[in-house]
Design a protein that fits this description.
The complex is a heterodimer. Chain A has 5 helices and 13 strands. Chain A is α+β, with helices and mostly antiparallel strands. Chain A has an 8-stranded mixed sheet with strand order 11-8-9-6-5-12-4-13. Chain A has a 3-stranded antiparallel sheet with strand order 1-3-2, covered by helices on one side. In chain A, strands 7-10 form a two-stranded antiparallel ribbon. Classes of the chains: A alpha+beta, B alpha+beta. At the A-B interface, strand 2 and strand 3 of A face strand 17 and helix 4 of B.
Chain lengths: 226, 311
């Protein structure tokens, strides 16, 4: 069942979604198999052999008001190094700067200076849907989505920022790339980010991009998580 | 040990799938046709959760090095052991050196090969299922290829069993697939909903474990086809701007931004996945209560399907 708590993309509504998910986990509601938070809704998978639709609706409805005041576990802050300076990595940076009537340096400063909230993970394994950009960076999505975006590409579109986790089609303007994998099928925990995480970008140059990339390949890199 | 001599176009290791990873964007995977999968395990005395092979359109050829038992269910792929024809939907005893071959499917798309003991591949995030796009599970997260060796968990003697003839599904014809409305049925016109529940929808060749793409009468939107992205359930009928439905299956994306007009009952997912390109489906609307009743009936049918052979 899909529990809708609003229709808009806002921190307030999304926080309630994640709080409701947390409350459902805490309560251990009978029959709930797993939950998938999104911007403003929570998809609840349940086993109808264990719980009926009406009783589950009633149990969740009881938790919804508490989601407004529930205290979520403290958010993690994940620092992601991001290389903006190489046009081979941030291939839309110059075009996005022109479109926004900013210098590339100003665009990078504004993008890297912001604090991002992971609303949810979806679409492909480990891909974060985030907001937190200054309004000045609000930009329509690409007119023609590209068919392949390399993993690690950091993109903006509308008020959102996302990081592609695997090679996939995409309509975001790519400003840079992080060498840190958001999805690593060989790792014990393949996905790096979780719903509710805070993300900060740290500007790195091409040399550091290569150094971190080598450490990632050697499995010696540890992401900075506070 | 099982040595793969020919893999077939897409043969993967699957168990009942991963749970709890969709919030990280990782789909459950597992068999598209759960009914046939579970029977393949039960025929060889395994728990339903044991890992087996899912074969697509053309099956593999493999040699076994130790005595054991297998069962083939699902799509009607002709089975031979050392060139001799063998029956589907029944326990097949094998001796060391036997070579098993599954030919092209005559009906249906996916067949399942259960191995007594279950396939021994590493657990990834709690499951042995292969998720091809995410490159996890099974053997190195990929489809099987020639030369792969698969281990089987040790097990005792296997009681021969068979599936009752009347319990074997017929994958031909034009199956009626039952669905409940929503979550975004209000985004469609009355004519659009009539089209969905009145028309015939042909399965397109682009279909895979992520979703079955269908073509038929346009399911027209009343207002925009884009929504604020939300979670996608198993069997969601997603309708983008062109009005053509996509039924989302076990390797689906966890969330998406297109409207979803209806959701197919869990017990009918296998029938969608067994419909071949060019075959058509019809949809029939039911209530949530009916869907739950059907699920209980499907469980009962599953439990009644297998009989022990009488010597």
């Amino acid at each position: 069942m899909c529990v809708e708590l609003g229709e808009e993309i806002s921190v307030e509504v999304n926080t309630r979604v994640r709080a409701l998910e947390f409350l459902i986990q805490q309560k251990g509601l009978t029959g709930v198999v797993e939950t998938v938070p999104a911007y403003s809704s929570l998809l609840v998978y349940y086993d109808p052999r264990a719980v009926g639709y009406e009783p589950l609706c009633a149990a969740i409805a009881e938790l919804v008001p508490q989601a407004t005041t529930a205290v979520l576990p403290p958010a993690r802050t994940v620092e992601l190094p991001c290389c903006y300076e190489d046009p081979e990595l941030g291939f839309d940076l110059a075009a996005a700067a022109r479109r926004l009537e900013l210098s590339t340096d100003e665009l990078v400063r504004l993008h890297a200076g912001a604090d991002y909230l992971v609303y949810f993970i979806g679409f492909t394994p480990g891909l974060p849907y985030m907001t937190g950009m200054p309004e000045r960076l609000n930009i329509p999505r690409l007119d023609t989505p590209r068919t392949k975006t390399p993993p690690g590409s950091v993109g903006i579109g509308g008020i959102q920022c996302c990081i592609y986790s695997v090679e996939s089609p995409g309509g975001f303007w790519i400003l840079g790339r992080t060498p840190v994998p958001l999805y690593d099928p060989g790792a014990a925990e393949p996905t790096l980010l979780r719903p509710g995480d805070r993300v900060r970008f740290r500007r790195i140059d091409r040399a550091e991009f290569a150094t971190i990339g080598a450490a990632v390949a050697a499995r010696t890199y540890r992401p900075v998580i506070a | 040990m099982i040595r793969i001599l020919d893999a077939g176009p897409q043969t993967t290791v699957q168990d009942l799938g991963r749970t709890g990873q969709m919030r990280y964007g990782i789909p459950p995977s597992g068999p598209v046709d759960r009914f046939a999968f579970v029977l393949a395990n039960r025929l060889v005395g395994n728990a339903d959760t044991a890992a087996a092979l899912e074969c697509t359109l053309i099956g593999p050829r493999f040699e076994i090095t130790d005595a054991g038992a297998i069962a083939v269910t699902g799509a009607a792929m002709p089975v031979t052991v050392n060139g001799q024809s063998a029956a589907g939907w029944t326990t097949i005893a094998l001796k060391p050196g036997d070579v098993v071959k599954l030919g092209p499917a005559r009906t249906g798309v996916r067949s399942y090969v259960g191995f007594a003991g279950g396939l021994d591949v590493p657990l990834v995030l709690g499951s042995r299922s292969t998720y091809l796009r995410g490159r996890v599970g099974g053997i190195e997260g990929r489809a099987l290829k020639k030369g792969d060796d698969l281990r089987v968990f040790p097990t005792g003697p296997v009681t021969p069993r068979r599936v009752e003839r009347r319990a074997i599904p017929d994958y031909t014809g034009e199956p009626t697939i039952r669905a409940i409305l929503g979550p975004q049925a209000d985004r469609f016109t009355a004519e659009g909903l009539q089209a969905l529940f009145g028309g015939r929808y042909e399965v397109l060749p682009q279909s895979d474990r992520m979703g079955s793409r269908l073509r038929g009468p346009r399911i027209a939107h009343a207002r925009g086809h884009d929504i604020v992205s939300d979670g996608i359930a198993l069997g969601s009928i997603q309708v983008p701007g062109d009005g053509q439905p996509i039924v989302l299956l076990v390797d689906r994306q966890s969330t998406g931004g297109y409207t979803k007009v209806a959701t197919i009952c869990s017990c009918d997912i296998g029938r969608v996945g067994q419909a071949r390109p060019g075959q058509s489906l019809r949809f029939h609307q039911i209530s949530v209560d009916e869907a739950h009743r059907l699920l209980r009936e499907a469980d009962t049918a599953l439990d009644a399907a297998v009989r022990e052979e009488i010597a």
